[in-house]
Amino acid sequence: MENVSKISRLVYTWVVLFALWMAFTTSLALDEVLVGLAISFVVAAMTFSYFTQIGLKAFSPKKIMYQIQYLIIFIVALVKANFHVAKIVLTPSLPINPGIVEFETKLNSDIAKMILANSITLTPGTFTVDVIENRFYVHWLEVETEDSEKVYKAIAESFEKILLKIYE
Q1: Taking the model in full, what pTM does it have?
Q2: Rounded CA separation 167/114 (Å)
Q3: Coil, strand or helix: which one is 3?
Q4: What do you get for the CA distance between the two ends of the chain, in Å?
Q5: Out of 29, 47, 103, 128, which could bridge 151 as a Cys pair, Cβ 3.0 to 4.6 Å?
Q6: pLDDT in tens, 86-140
Q7: Region(s) of the chain under CATH 3.30.70
Q8: pLDDT digits (tens, 9 = 90+) for 53-97
Q9: For 101, which DSSP code?
Q10: For residue 127, what is the DSSP state?
């Protein structure tokens, strides 16, 4: 990954933390906004080196469009998986085949791997057990195959395609 200036990373972290502050406080009162700006700046100044490597380039229109696309893909996968798991729960006679499967990711960025792991875990029926370098180990409620490439296509491919565009 290319070197991103410290200022860019600091400002990015500050903006993200302030956005979270605003989302949690849900207030536009001047005193709360000012306190949020101050606290998010202090936290950003202390943590930006750990928080991100991407910096302000994450706010480019192209990256924002990919982030929106990722959110849509994630929500669609989430809804489908919820209905599928609900069907399994409501129809106990349906056979399930739980197990741990593995696949290899093409992602190099730690943040991208973390987002992929969390997206898999948040999707019902799958749970990321471990990530070792580029290998993901996932508990899958209905193992369809143990072939690593087919597992990748079934569980991670749709997420990873967009994450590669955002973080690589």
Answers
A1: 0.76
A2: 12
A3: coil
A4: 7
A5: 103
A6: 998 898 888 889 999 999 999 998 889 999 999 999 999 999 999 999 999 999 9
A7: 60-167
A8: 677 777 788 988 999 999 999 999 999 999 999 998 898 888 889
A9: E
A10: E
